[in-house]
Amino acid sequence: MRILLAMAMIALTAPLATAQQVNVAGRWYCTVNARSNQPDGNYGLEAEIQVSPNGTLQGRGNVFFPNLRNSVQPFQGPGDWTILPPEPGLSALVKFRVHTNTHGIVVWFARPTGPGQMYNRFTPPPQNGRQVDIETQCGKTG
Fold it and tell me: By the 8 A CB rule, do 98 and 75 touch?
């Protein structure tokens, strides 16, 4: 019985250890660029976020749609973040969400790559001949 209890305690504390090692709290500047093989599928965003240790954040930034007439759209609002379990051979993935009044929920993902740095590159499976490559970079600014 003590062995089962000890195993349960280890399982419960493992995500906390991962969250502490990532150390996401602070001020971050992130850019996301999505490049598509279709001319209307490119977009980007830049965001400044203040991340709190309790899983909340405040964010503001701009979404860029280079093929639209009003191609720069500002956003701001409260949000949240969470650390997703790492995939085999990769570091944990951090999910950031800003709840805006203008764009719904703006979401991006990044993996810690060093002190004060995060990066992620993701290429989802093609849909209807459209291929997208999404690259995220974040740097801690405070």
Answer: yes
